[in-house]
Amino acid sequence: MHGPDEQKFRVYENPWLHLALSAICTTVSELFLKRGATDTAHISEQWGWTGLTGLASPYVWVGIVFVLGSFLTWLYVLKHMPLSVAFPASQVVHVTIPVSSWLVLGEQIVTVRWLGILLVLAGLALVARPVATLEEKL
Amino acid sequence: MTPIALLLILISIAGLVAGELFLKHAMQSTIAGGFRQRTFLLFFIAGLVSMTIYFFLSLGLLQKFDLSYLYPFQGLSVIFISIAAAVLLREKLTPQLVIGSLLITAGVALVSLS
User: Does the ipTM exceed 0.90?
Assistant: First the structure.
């Protein structure tokens, strides 16, 4: 009774996969939110600090859809992984967001920032190991 | 960076940390009790409120600063959340996990300093 269906189901249930999906959605959402926030920065100096003026931009609404996608996958991660493992692992976005800001938005990344990104990657490698053993147990 | 901007960043981090703890507790409660129960609803709503405050404060800050500069400040939340998970949720912190989390925080700080 070990058909391909069962295997597919297992892959789908993997919290690690949901963590990756959540990180991708977060990265995409931030790019949209930044674009929308930049477009609406001039609207009101008085209310700008609340962020509410950002809602005038359609980019912000697309960003919100990706935030929701990230949120739903993240809830699944929270249900099945310890927070002290899942949250540090979710910091992979500190690599993906600066790199995509550089590639998509044309923001600059100086040498020190690249070093910081390498440190985050090193930390992620350590943090991800308990997750790997957790998967084996499941 | 003005003091008010720093204060707004700190409040947004506090919202994120509280939100993650509330949501983790809410989701954990569904393993035994499902979704139709008081603990899940209370903590889920508390988590949503905290996350909403965090979201709009972040959006306001995004209007004034570069994304790749602003976002890494949230790396500080790794330390706060790890400690809170150990103390409040009684999760076990292995030495490997602690070193990994500190490396991530250091890396994130380096990214935000530049």
Answer: no
**Helices and strands of chain B, counted as H and E runs:** 5, 0
Residue A136 scores a pLDDT above 70: no
How far apart are the CA of B57 and the nearest CA of chain A, in angstroms?
Answer: 6
| Inter-chain touch B61–A51, beta carbons under 8 Å | yes
Q: Do A126 and B103 touch (CB under 8 A)?
A: yes
Residue that is written with structure tokens 């903590």 in the block: B43
Which chain B residue lies closest to A92 (C-alpha atoms)?
A: B104
Q: How far apart are CA B107 and CA A39, in angstroms?
A: 30
Per DSSP, the three-state class of B41 is helix
| Binary contact (B62, A82; C-beta < 8 A) | no
**Residue B20 has which token pair?**
């993650």
Considering chain A, what percentage of its residues have pLDDT values greater than 70?
A: 86
Per-residue model confidence (pLDDT) at position A120: 93
pTM of the model: 0.79
